[in-house]
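Blinded run. Sample ID left blank on purpose so nobody reads anything into the name before looking at the predicted structure. Input follows.
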Amino acid sequence: MSKPEVKHFEIQSEKGEMKFKSKYHHGLFIKYLTDNEGKYIYITLDTRKPSRSLEQNRLYWLYLNIISEETGHDIEEIHEWAKGKFLSKGIKEIFGDKTRVKKSTTELNKSEFTEFLLDIERVTGVPIPDTSIYETAPLKI
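Blinded prediction complete.
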């Protein structure tokens, strides 16, 4: 048995009707319905806030690379340190071992992610980079 296909369509409730984020999202939804003609479709609704943007994610890994070059620490080490310092959910005992449980950076919304970057900057003293000097389009936090 194959794993069910999961699709996500961003919509907004407006006067009791679905308003799609864009024509593209609406088109994907219609295509999904057409491709699954005659099948039962199970819909789950969720009101989670949008997570960090792809731009923020690119900026984060660029920033970790800069911190790595300035401090000599490995990027993954810095990533784990920052999560442990700023995204800790506390210490839990698992199989008899005390373990720090951390929130994932993927769980952060845009505002929380910005605060996370600012916390890292405050503690490391390494400024968040001005992305306009890189070959990519300017990134916004």
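Unblinding after everyone has recorded impressions. The first strand starts at residue 11 and ends at 14.
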